[in-house]
Each structure stands twice: as structure tokens, then as C-alpha cells.
Known about the structure:
With about 150 residues, the protein is α/β, with parallel strands linked by helices. Helix content is about 35%, strand content about 25%. The protein has five helices and six strands, in the order αβββαβααββα. The protein has a six-stranded mixed beta sheet. The protein is globular and about 40 Å long. The N and C termini lie far apart (about 40 Å).
Amino acid sequence: MANRTPEQDLINEFVTHLEQHADDTVKIDSVINTNCKSKKFADIEFKSKTDLHWVIEAKSDDSKDKHNTVHKIFGELLKETGRTNRSNCRHAILIPESAVKFYSRAFQSIDREKFLGFGKLIPIDTVFTSNATGVGQLTWEALYDAHKP
């Protein structure tokens, strides 16, 4: 396909894993959106088997502007807090598992307490990671601390 992007590939991989996930709180029951170009929804929105509304912004370090994606995470999450259709909602981000250290190192240029405060402001329930074999979950704090200088 001509319009493939690393972000959309990551989303597609992640959604495939969640359709068969063992944990019903993250297993997809109904898809609302899985398109990184949507203006009306987050990159990934779905209702889980337990009726949680997941709102997930995906970012990939597999691009020319990977350093800009670090900043975009904050803007995208802030934008989501202004939406009104968010009952029983959980906010999260999705990154490739291989990018955890990249994002952690980049985020460490931000004061730790301010970074953690942002995660409480939104609030960010989890950081999902994805690779070819499955998904993982980190806390916002664990993402910050993953890179050991």
C-alpha cells in the first residue's frame, strides 16, 4: 500500500494482538477507530470485553522525525482530554517495544516530577508496547525510568 506509515503498521500489529489478548480489560470487544490519520478519534479507540473505553495515542521512532514524536505525545494526549465522549475511559500511549529506551532517554530531559505530574493530569493509565510476538505494559513512571544513564 502506498500510504503505509510506521505508526499505522504499529497500530495494526497491536490491534491484532489485542483481539486475542487473555486479559478482558484490554481485549477488544468493539473497535471505534484504528486509523492514525483520524481527526475525530485517538489513533486507537475501542471498548474492551469489560466495557472500558480505551483511548490510545500511538507513536513510532521508526521515522525521519522520530525526535519530534517525543513532543507530539504530549500534544496528542492533551487534545484527547478535551473530547466529551469519554465515559469509563482509560488513556494510554503505544510505542514499539524496541523504542522504550529511545523515548525514556528523550523524556529524561524533562524534570522527573513534572513528567510524572503530566501522567497524573491526563491521567495515563498505561504505556503499551508492541512487537511481532505480543504486547507489554509499563507505567508512565517505568517508561521514564527505563533508560539508565
